[in-house]
Amino acid sequence: MLSYSFKYSYYNVKKYIVIISISIFSAGLYKFLPVEKDVAKGLAILFLIAALWITESLPITVTALTVPLIASFTGIFDVKSSFTHFANPIIFLFLGGFALAAALHKQNMDELIAKIVLQTSKNNVLISIIMLFLVTAVISMWISNTATTAMMLPIALGLIYRINKIEDKRVNLFILLGLAYSANIGGIATIVGSPPNGITAANLNMGFSDWLYIGVPSFVILFPVVISFLYFLIRPGFLYKESSEDNSVNLRDYINKNSALVVIIFFIAVALWLLSKPLSSFLEIKKGFDSLVAVFALLLLTLSRVVSWKEIEKFTDWGVLLLFGGGITLSAILSETGASRYLANILYGSLIDYGFVVLLFGAAVLMIFLTEIASNTASAAILVPIFLAVGAEIPSVNQNVLPLAIGIAASCAFMLPVATPPNAIVFGTGKVDQKSMMKIGLKLNFICAAVICLIAYFVIG
User: Fold this and answer.
1) Rounded to an integer, what distance in angstroms lies between the CA atom of residue 395 and that of residue 142?
2) What is the phi-psi region of residue 381: left when phi exceeds 0, alpha when psi lies from -120 to 50, beta otherwise?
3) Digit-coded pLDDT (tens) for 413-426
4) 29, 44 Cβ separation under 8 angstroms
5) Is 247 a residue whose pLDDT tops 60?
6) Which end of the chain is more exposed for a tag (fewer CB within 10 A), N or C?
7) Which letter, b or e, does each residue of 14-33 get, where b requires 16 or more Cβ atoms within 10 Å of its Cβ?
8) How far is residue 69's CA from residue 451's CA, in Å, rounded to a whole number?
């Protein structure tokens, strides 16, 4: 008991020392940086928040809540303006997404989709595995990659048990890492698929259908590239055929009045999102139509009683929604103080001589490796506004190319278990060792950075 108390006290003291040190250094930046006071103020706040997010000395959600506090006390915004960004429409879009995910999960629709798709493989080992990866990615477009990986993990482990009787490490690595990476990449396709997408979209004023034009091609390109290179790097040997046990799905176990209502509401929401541009123009709603659709879907779900508000509350990651607010407020601070333009000028002046492609590749690599050690949402909140300003300095290139590359790269951290929840979940099975994950993930990180450059250059640019 004494040992536990000592360790706990030591951990707290160490944490407070880090927080105090970061705060003192931030104050020093504001005091001594040879730049305009407003710029120095913005840079000091950026360092403070970024350091707290990366070290996690405070919970990242709590750090996000300090952003409007600091903005108010430093006079950058008044109190009302500081908290306005916590009501950004993108936050309500994600809230509606969480509600739809909760309803689909409650009615076991995600499980049904997984079983139907896997059933079509007809006991072919490689097709079973590719189907597993593909359905994981597709579900992850609409449901959090954490929940998707947790749901698909038993199916993956069952597949391993049936085809890997001799416990070949390579087979375990291929199936489990492929599962995690598919969940990560699948989230790129839609705005609601991954929080960094929302941060990026909010900075660029993009709607649901706008993101699809970028997200879907990015997924279509990255998914086969990652799975193919994963196969090439591991070279698993599938020596055993899957057993011929009955894998049939009884639809009566899943289809009922409530599940049918959920599916109808889901497709209504998706249809309205896809048609958001003509509909918003017809209704004369300039911004936020996608968020109205999300709230409308939430209302339909609760009125039809296919899912309760308590269940939506439980399924919703409220910390992520608050992190959105903090990240968007930080972006506004950097813009208001001129700090983002100052950093953009430095980055532009330092790297542009090497060419735009080098700048683009460097931005993608920076985002991927920052995400390995820090929250991808927090990382996006830090880097997207900076590289948006960098893009504005390059007249010959679409201003959105760099921040969109950053947003996509946020879902491509494959090296460490702590980088993403799916990585941690498959690592927790004990069948994936950290050395192998790091070795394979490091190569995939650079491969993805290169592919993202091609996507940004040819698809976005």
Assistant:
1) 36
2) alpha
3) 898 887 788 888 88
4) yes
5) no
6) N
7) eeeebbeebeeebeebbeee
8) 39
Cβ atoms of 42 and 23 closer than 8 Å: no
Token pair, residue 128, equals: 């079973």
Structure tokens at 445: 């990180």
Give the dihedral sign, CA 12/321/414/153. positive
At residue 430, what are phi and psi to the nearest 5 degrees?
85, 0
Nearest to 440 by CA among 127, 147, 134, 229: 229
Contact 437, 427 (CB under 8 A): yes
pTM over 0.85: no
Q: Report pLDDT for 423.
A: 86
- Is there a contact between 330 and 44 (Cβ–Cβ < 8 Å)? no
Residues above pLDDT 90, as percent of the chain: 32
Residue 59 burial class via C-beta count within 10 angstroms: exposed 0-12, middle 13-18, buried 19 and up: exposed
Tokens, residue 73? 């006390």
Which DSSP string corresponds to 62-123? HHHHHHHHHHHHTTSS-HHHHHHGGG-HHHHHHHHHHHHHHHHHHTTHHHHHHHHHHHTTTT
Quote the crossing angle between the two packed helices 339-351 and 356-373, to the nearest 10°. Answer: 120
Give the CA radius of gyration of the chain: 23
Residue 409: both structure tokens together: 């790269």
* pLDDT value at 182 more than 90: yes
Q: How far is 71 from 346, CA to CA, in rounded Å?
A: 24
Please answer whether residues 251 and 186 qualify as being in contact, where contact means their C-beta atoms are separated by less than 8 angstroms: no
Bigger pLDDT: 323 vs 442:
442
Q: How confident is the model at residue 161, as a pLDDT?
A: 73
Phi-psi sector, 168: left (phi>0), alpha (psi -120 to 50), beta: beta
From the list 255, 276, 252, 315, the residue with the least C-alpha distance to 97 is 315
SS3 162: helix
Number of H helices, E strands in the chain: 22, 0
Label residue 123 left, alpha or beta by phi (over 0 means left) and psi (-120 to 50 means alpha): left
**Are the CB atoms for 179 and 414 separated by under 8 Å?**
no
Ramachandran bin of 226, using left for φ above 0, alpha for ψ from -120 to 50, beta for the remaining angles: alpha
Owner of token pair 């940004």: 456
Distance of CA 58 to the CA centre of its chain: 21
Tokens found for residue 171? 């087979």
Cβ count within 10 A of residue 199? 31
Which DSSP letter does residue 244 get? Answer: -
Return the structure tokens found at 21. Answer: 């040190």
